[in-house]
Fold this sequence. Notes:
- The chain is mainly α.
- 57% of the residues lie in helices and 0% in strands.
- The protein contains five helices and no strands.
- The chain has helices at 15-29, 45-54, 60-76, 83-87, 94-110.
- Helix 1 packs across helix 3 and helix 3 packs across helix 5 (94-110).
- The longest helix is centred in the middle third of the chain and has 17 residues, at 60-76.
- The chain is globular, with a radius of gyration of 13 Å.
Amino acid sequence: MAGLGLWQVPNPLLPSLHLLHTISVLERYGWCKSLDVDPMGRLCMRGAQTLLEKTGYVTPDARHRAVDHMHTVLAQADVHMPFYAWNDLPGRTFPHVKALLTRAADHAHTIGD
């Protein structure tokens, strides 16, 4: 986590910042589908969130709210499935994932979360 420029003693983040840090984790370690962590150490969106939670950068409650923000953004695009299923769809790319996380972070920030 220090390689990402995050503090050694973490302060749990608001959902909006957690979503942006999820992007940083995926950029640093790589993104994958189907597995939280693949054999090469790449992470899916849920795996990156788990890493941030286990290292103290997000509380379970703030992580849950971040997931709600992702689902809100997906629903606005008429996508009605869990974000991790959306992550695994054929044709899904990291730019799509990064755009979803960015839009969800913007949404969360707009409502003060």
